[in-house]
Amino acid sequence: MAVAEKLRLGVNIDHVATIRNARGGRLPDPVRAAEMAALAGADGITAHLREDRRHIGDEDIARLASEIGLPLNLEMAATEEMRAIALRHKPNACCLVPEKRQEVTTEGGLDVLGGGAALQGILDPIKAAGIRISLFIDPVEAQIEAAVKAGADIVELHTGAYAHAHQDGDAKRFASELARLQKGAELADAAGLEVHAGHGLCFETVAPISAISQVVELNIGHFLIGEAIFTGLEGAIEKMRRLMLEARRGQGASA
Ligand code: PXP
Asked: Does the beta carbon of 198 lie inside 6 Å of ligand 1?
C-alpha cells in the first residue's frame, strides 16, 4: 500500500468571493488570493462554482483557469451546465459534489452509488477531456466501490462530520468519525484511488487527518480565509502547511 510522503494543500478561495459579493463590485479579488496562496506554499487552488453563484462566479473560473500558475480543482454539481463549463476551462481536476440550493455549505457526500447513468453522463466526457475526476464522498465502503466503478481518479473524503464533532466538543464522536476516515482512506487507497480530504478543517483538527498516510491532499478554505483577517493569508497558509507536515512526519516516524 502506498505511503504518501507528500501531503498537498489545496486552498479554497470561495469565501474571498463571499466577501466581495456582500457589496458587489470587484474587491476583494479571489484571483489575487490565489496568487498569494501560491506564494505562501499552496499546491493548488480550489473553487466551487455553485449553481446559484453565491460566491465564485463564471468570470472567476475563467480567470483562475487562465491566470494562476497552480493546478485548479473545480468543485461543481454534476449537472449539464457545469459539465459544459468544465469542458470550456479544462481545470486540472473536477470535484463533483452534491448541491442543495438551501444549504449553507456542502452537507454530506455525493451519492455515487445512486448516481447511475445521470452521474456517468457528466463524469465520462470530463474524464475523456483529460480532466481528473474527484468525487466528494462520505467514508463509506459502498460509495468507494461505486467511485471505482464510475471511473473516478480521486475520492475526496468529507471531513465535515469529524469537524462538527470537534466543534461540539464530543470526544467520542470525534474519535469514531476519525476512525471512519482512516478506514475509508485505507479502502480507497487499496482500491487504487488517490485519496483527498476536506471540509471544515482548522488548525485544531488538521493534524489527525494529515497523519492518515493514504491522504495526499487536503482542501481547506473557510477557516483559512477567516484566519487571514487576523494573521494575513500568507501567515494562515504557512501555519496550516507547517501543522500538516509536522503531523505527517510524526506519523512517518512512528510507522
Ligand atoms: N472540499 C470540498 C469538496 C468542498 O465542497 C469544500 C467546501 O467548498 C471544501 C473542501 C473546503 O471546505 P472548507 O471551506 O470548510 O474548508
From this structure: yes
